[in-house]
Amino acid sequence: MGTFGFLRMGTLTLALGASVSGALALDPTAKTSAMEPLIPSAQALAPQPAPSPVTAPMADALHLPPGVSSRLLSPALPAPAPAAASDAFRAGTRLYYEGDRKLAIEQLRRAAESGHPIAQWKLGRIYQTGDGVPVNDAKAFDFYNQVANNHADDSPGSPQAAFVASAFVALGTYYLKGIENTAVRPNVDKAREIYTYAASYFGDADAQFNLGRLYLESDSGERDPKQAARWLRVAARKGHGGAQALLGQLLFTGDEDVPRRPAQGLMWLTIARANAHGTSDDWIRDAQEQAFSVASEPERRQGVAQAQDWIAKSGNP
């Protein structure tokens, strides 16, 4: 168990801190102490007829203050999900792959209601993507919220840690855009702090990439290219294609407090291109081609050689 920050703000207290194969089978591409909700509950997600000064207040943003709470030095391990929840989760997994989304969702919901975190995460993903159901971002938010509120201080080495981190990333992304007709309004600061927690404590590469991207955006309020480079580099070394490409662009062009390193930038762009698949990665291919076209011949040779060496050593483009 790692160490955590512990913060009390008004009435809000924040603690920061089934089988795995069955969980991964639901999504092959996927990578507690008592506390009040980290993110608003389902009631806060009810459609809002109009902004009103009497609307229930949203929970304060997630913070990472210095210091460690003595209460969190030796926390009890979270209780395992009841056997009935694990059975329902396994049944939902089987039905999901048999193509019966309706019955799968019923079983997963039974597991989620009993506190099964991976079932909650999977339901969030189902409603977020419209996997057999109409897209419903409010429901997706609520399921991700349950995971984050109840498992924020789980060990990064726990079986469900990757799913908890993914839930935090999803919540951060919802706060970037907001959810129409709900109490979830766009809040860049809150999104950044949620990403920071998932990136720092759980070491989640998607959170690190999103955090780096936020630090590069001019309208984010806290633009910091040096911080962006730091987070992008951490995610890039884990094989995150988007982070590799964005870091490559940053190093190739240079920015405030980030000296221009064209060969190293081409290296990361070339690695990212080798990692690019599908139309969603067209921007990566375009970025690499654009940088390659304006680079000098020595920069090209050096960048490509470094990329080939990195791929050979890491085994991960």
Q: Helicity range of the residues?
A: 55-70%
Termini distance?
31 Å
- Low-confidence sequence ranges: 1-25, 27-37, 40-79
Structural class: mainly alpha
Largest sheet: number of strands, sense, barrel closure = 2 strands, antiparallel
What order do the SSEs take from the amino end to the carboxyl end, as H and E? EEHHHHHHHHHHHHH
Number of helices: 13
Strand coverage percent: under 5%
Question: Average pLDDT across residues?
Answer: 80
Q: What sort of overall outline do the alpha carbons produce when their principal axes are compared? A: elongated
The Rg value, from CA coordinates, equals 21 Å
Number of strands: 2
**What is the strand arrangement across the widest sheet?**
1-2
Pfam families: Sel1 (PF08238)
Protein name: Sel1 repeat family protein
Keywords: Signal
Region (Disordered): 294-317
Any key phrases for this structure?
single chain; 317 residues; mainly alpha; 2 strands; 56% helix; Sel1_AlgK
Give the secondary structure arrangement, pairings included.
Elements: E1 6-9, E2 12-15, H1 20-26, H2 83-98, H3 101-113, H4 117-129, H5 137-151, H6 161-177, H7 188-200, H8 205-216, H9 225-237, H10 241-253, H11 262-274, H12 282-294, H13 297-314
Antiparallel strand pairs: 1-2
